[in-house]
Design goal:
It is built from 5 helices and 2 strands; from the N terminus they run ββααααα. It has helices at 34-49, 72-87, 116-131, 147-154, 159-168; strands at 2-8, 15-21.
């Protein structure tokens, strides 16, 4: 299930919501919950198509549906996001998988790489902030977001999500 947490924009230093997943999203992982996939798709839609200075989408792509299905297009967007992060000098894995991030700026415990989902949150926040739009911060109340994702983002936090906080303590 997708959920809301908080973070501080790396560039703006402003506090904001951040959106995370309980389970990994990508080919070959056991997670791939529809709401988690929808969240990743919604963030890609913001970063690539809803701002005036978007991140470059995968070649030939002109949009992404927020449908909760992990198809070839969503996988292309995940790989593209990882490639963009790596090209900017960040240490990330090019494995086609978005893992839940534990806390802002933290490296993964095993691979010692950045969580690309956290980087995507930061990009969405900064791009929208630069444009003066609330597409990112108001994600959980937008009427163009599927009801299942809106429900998850507005639900109280659950024990699954809290496991990441406990690991920090």
């Amino acid at each position: 299930m997708a959920f809301v947490t908080t973070f501080v924009g790396a560039v703006s230093k402003k506090g904001s919501n951040a959106f995370n997943v309980d389970f990994s999203v990508g080919p070959g992982v056991r997670g791939n919950q529809p709401a988690d996939i929808m969240l990743v798709q919604a963030l890609f839609r913001i970063a690539h198509f809803e701002v005036s200075a978007p991140l470059p989408p995968p070649p030939g792509e002109t949009g992404i549906a927020v449908d909760g299905k992990l198809g070839p297009k969503t996988i292309r967007f995940i790989l593209n996001g990882q490639r963009l992060a790596k090209a900017s000098g960040l240490k990330v894995r090019l494995d086609g998988i978005f893992d839940p991030f534990r806390s802002q700026g933290e490296f993964s415990k095993i691979a010692k790489v950045r969580y690309v989902l956290e980087l995507l949150n930061d990009a969405c926040f900064n791009l929208c902030d630069n444009d003066g739009i609330n597409n990112f911060v108001a994600l959980q109340v937008r009427d163009d977001i599927p009801a299942a994702l809106v429900a998850d983002l507005n639900a109280p936090r659950r024990d699954v999500a809290r496991q990441y906080e406990r690991e920090q303590g």
